[in-house]
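Sample entry as discussed:
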Amino acid sequence: MVGQAVKGVVLDDSVLFLNSNGDNPNHSLRPATDALLRHLWYSMFRTGISSRLDSSDCKDIIKEKAESHSIDCFSLNAFLTEDDINEIMLSWGDIRHSILYVISSERKDDIKQLIDQGWPVVVLNVQGDGACENLGRICISKLEELPLSICRLNRKAADCSPIVVGYTMKPSRELDFAKRGAFPLYPTDNGLIFLPLTFDLPLSSQLPEVDMILHKATDEILYVELSNSSDLSNKITYSSRMQELQRHIEVHPDLCVLDPLNNIRPVLDRLETQQILLRLEALKSEGCIIRGPYFLKVDNFNEAILVQKLSEAKLTLPCIVKPQVACGVSDAHKMAIIFDVEDLKNLDVPLPAIIQEYVDHSSTLYKFYVLGEKIFHAVKKSTPNISTLTNLNQGVGPLIFDSLKSLPIVNESQQHLEGKSSDKKNKNINIELVQNSANWLRSVLDLSIFGFDVVVEDKSGDHVIVDVNYLPSFKEVPDDIAIPAFWEAIKNKYENFKKASP
């Protein structure tokens, strides 16, 4: 495989089970197996399992994993033969010179057979110190090390020097990106390799291989101090592993980060976001205004002069109430629509909070995504107009909801009636105006990848940005468009960082 990138991986059953020699009656898979299979599958690697175990339980487990992860199965002889090796080579003839075989150190004869046949071998050391000596060119002590080994091989095999992007985010988010082909372990067309950072291994062994870090730090927030202070800086407590990564970044200023933690802080704080959006009104286009919603920050829902403050902030009921902390904590998306001042009393929304203008927008939301220099948008169904909400609520108090789970929306017939009754000045969104605003936000926030939501106010035609978020999934944009733009944004960030470095 000299000069060839790894494009296929065959996992010997000896590396999948905690004890492959029959002494383990439970036939337990190694804890890292599922994560590894997902990484290989969504990295577009051809993956196979070579099986020689007689246990029906093991065979059933292998069959289930093969079916769920699109994996080929090879039933081999008790001892690996030349015919077994040829079977795999013939099955994967198109990548026969780019296949990596991963096997346990206890199968020494099989390892020798593979090496004699010219196969690149990764040996999982399950027998302790010295067991891997002279068994193969690459030896790992934990299955979690395999992606790192593949990354090293692919970097070495590349014609040009690829940029290795180490990434970390919660598993569900990683899965959402990875299943769309966003995180390949072999070089993309523009020269990126994506390495999943794992906290099951020392970061010190992984980060030397990495040129830049892509993170969703909000997935690692443990606690945000909620107080009467408006400033959330230095009040965010990250997980110990995120703190470890942060310390490494601080002592390695030559490491590019997408995006620095200080840059994402404004979008964690709805108050700071609103204050930034106040400066948008300077961007006008042919009489069309883009702005943030009117708002008021409150520390106490029972404040005596709250009605006066609402009036001074140009707020009329109904309004929407949101926690000041925008993400990263469990109740950051717990919101309420209030119809009367009495609804604020003992309202079950975390304080401090932002009371925000509710904009009539005929249930139409425009989601904009900024991926580097490129801007995309999608149209989504949204919450109904005030008149419809009032009819739905029927005076029973505040309408409380979780914005990530269940927005209060109407059915198609109600939306049709709403559209006919609304006094809509301009049905079309001014794309040029919003794109100019996106470029302005990119400059002000100094973020490479972010999203924001826009609604068009029915009567005035004002374009109102109601939410801003960091590293969205942009899943409404087709993958064949979004993923190359995602890669391009990452590479441009790295190149600009290097140009600016001393």
Q: What stands out?
A: The domain at 8-154 is CATH 3.40.50.1000 (Rossmann fold). The two ends are 38 Å apart (CA to CA).
